[in-house]
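Handout for the seminar on molecular recognition.
Each group receives one record of this type.
Step one: identify the two inputs.
Step two: read the structure output and locate the region that could contact zinc ion.
Step three: write two sentences on what you found, then compare them with the reference statements printed after the record.
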Amino acid sequence: MSTSEIPLPRGRIIEDTVVPARAPWSARIARGDMLRLIDLEGQQAIDFLCFNADDPAERYNAANTIKVPGNIFIGEGTVLRSTLARPMMTVTADSCGRHDTIFGCCSFEIDEVRYGKTNPECCQRNFERELARHGVGPEHIVPNINFFMYVPVGPDGEAEIVDALSKPGDHVDLRAEMDVLAVLSNCPEALNPATGDQGPTPIRAIVWSPE
Ligand SMILES: [Zn+2]
C-alpha cells in the first residue's frame, strides 16, 4: 500500500515520517496529542518504549500494563502504565488485535545465543542510539512493547514468535496521557518471524494534535 492511500487523521499534523527499514525514530509528544503507527507492508514488528518527558526514570512498565487489565496483549483501550503505575499512553484504535508485551527487543547478544548469528542491526542498539539524542542513557532501556508482533502463550507457558496478524496498512493510535518521549526501533530482525517472510520493511509514524 502506498502511503498516499492511507487517510491522515483529523487534526493538526505535527510530524508525518516514513521510518526506513531497520531504523529508529523518536518524538516528544505532548499530553493530549496522538501517535499513529502504521505497518505499511504488514508483519513488521515495531519495538516501542515511552518515558516521562521530564524524567526518564518514570517509564513504560510491562508488568503494570499487563496486571491492571489482566491481559498480556495490547489492544484498543489498553493503558500503557509507568513504573509508578500512572497512565502514560492509551491505545485508542487498533486494526490488528495482537501486539506483544513479553518478548522485549532483539540484540546482537541474544541473537547470538538464540541463533548463533546476528543481523546487521538490532533494536537494542537502535534504542541506545536514539535515546542518546535525548540525553537518556542505556540503563533506562527496559522490556518494550512489540507492536505488530504476535507471541501466543500456551496453557503450559510455552511462548514463541509466530507470524504476525498485521496486514498492509494496519495501525495503532495512542493518546499521550502525560508529556512523553516516545522511542521506537523498526525491528531489523530477519532470523525469526518478527518481520514476516519479506524481512524488515518501512513503517510510518504520525504525530498530531486532535484539536
Ligand atoms: Zn528487533
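Reference statements: The radius of gyration is 16 Å. The chain has one domain: 12-209.
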